[in-house]
Recover the amino acids of this structure.
């Protein structure tokens, strides 16, 4: 086996949620670059279809499918579509998430529900739908997007911290349950990454965007924000055979911020 073979995902069927922008789109792009068949899932149909169309200009094997990961019927519909058109799932990247920068006192109940439903319940619902298909075809790799704030607390982000901590431990429980089916389950924990989600936090906190991004990079040994591509490389590692005996773990990709 050559070094290239370890990253070879030719014709593997990969599903990416939150794929219309940011980390999801960067990961879908990288997986397509190494030969995967990638299904982009997102609730934003306009941006999702545009992203898929642009990727197909490079002859990448990609498709967009609308999916609200908080809706069990949508997740079941995705499973049926994949089973009918691809017959298998090799990689699932549960990446969809939202953030509301508020304390528990300031959060509306509807905001709490939104953050928990998209970021945590969505992992449960789509995994519930796709794990049987993944198992039937001999196993695969699931990567869930956690956060540095799933491992430590953060200010004015109570619901987000709760959701991401849930993702971190859900990952471990899934790894235990589904290891016998040859399904590896790991969590990638990004630090501050230059995405639309991060930029939206500046508006939520009533801060000037450029200054907020500069402050988010301060104190990291590598002295910069992450890029979506930085995180995508970590996902590729966890999806590939280079991580063939890694399951139930958290991969921190944050420029040394937690250190």
């Amino acid at each position: 086996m050559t070094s290239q073979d370890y990253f070879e995902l030719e014709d593997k069927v990969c599903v990416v949620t939150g794929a219309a922008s940011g980390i999801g789109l960067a990961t879908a792009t990288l997986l397509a670059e190494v030969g995967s068949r990638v299904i982009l899932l997102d609730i934003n149909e306009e941006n999702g279809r545009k992203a898929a169309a642009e990727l197909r200009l490079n002859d990448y094997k990609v498709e967009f499918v609308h999916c609200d990961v908080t809706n069990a019927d949508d997740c079941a519909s995705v499973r049926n579509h994949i089973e009918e058109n691809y017959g298998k799932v090799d990689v699932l990247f549960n990446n969809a998430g939202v953030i509301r920068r508020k304390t528990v006192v300031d959060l509306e109940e509807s905001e709490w529900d939104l953050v928990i439903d998209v970021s945590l319940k969505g992992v449960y619902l789509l995994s519930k739908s796709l794990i049987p298909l993944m198992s039937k075809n001999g196993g695969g790799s699931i990567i869930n997007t956690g956060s540095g704030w799933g491992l430590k607390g953060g200010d004015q982000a109570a619901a987000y911290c709760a959701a991401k901590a849930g993702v971190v431990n859900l990952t471990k429980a899934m790894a235990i349950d589904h290891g016998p089916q040859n399904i590896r389950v790991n969590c990638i924990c990004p630090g501050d990454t230059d995405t639309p989600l991060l930029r939206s936090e500046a508006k939520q906190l009533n801060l000037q965007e450029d200054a907020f991004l500069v402050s988010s990079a301060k104190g990291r040994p590598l002295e910069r924000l992450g890029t979506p591509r930085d995180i995508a490389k970590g996902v590729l590692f966890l999806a590939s055979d280079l991580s063939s005996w890694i399951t139930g773990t958290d991969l921190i990709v944050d420029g040394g911020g937690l250190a």
